[in-house]
Amino acid sequence: MDKMFFAYLVAMALVTYAIRMIPFTVMRTKIKSPYIRSFLFYVPYSVLGAMTFPYIFYATENVVTATLGTAVAFVLAYFNFSLLTVAICACAVAFVTGLIF
């Protein structure tokens, strides 16, 4: 293997370690601000959504089928259907519209 590969590997390991350790060393007391606590509560959900949402439209060969499946998922989720029901219905709509288009 190339020596630069190991240098990059070590550098990325140190950066990843630093990103994870800085909050533990800086914040030694419990966060009391309700604003900051609520912000930190929603960070994982927003990051996960930002990472996965754009790729929903490329999950099928046709953007229209993916958009229709996503629209069905939004509507069903709005009406508080279970996660399994939302996922199955969204996949079914994307599949059926894929057969039509």
What does this entry look like structurally?
The model has no long low-confidence stretch (mean pLDDT 91). The longest helix is centred in the first third of the chain and has 24 residues. The protein has four helices and no strands.
- Beta-strand portion reads under 5%
What is the CA-atom radius of gyration, in angstroms? 21 Å
Order of helices and strands: HHHH
What's the count of strands?
A: 0
Largest sheet: none
Helical content stands at over 70%
SSE class = mainly alpha
Distance between the termini: 48 Å
In short:
By secondary structure, the protein is mostly helical. The protein has 4 helices and no strands.
Question: How does the SSE layout of this entry go?
Answer:
Layout lengths: L2 H24 L7 H23 L6 H16 L4 H18 L1
Quick tags:
4 helices; mainly alpha; 101 residues
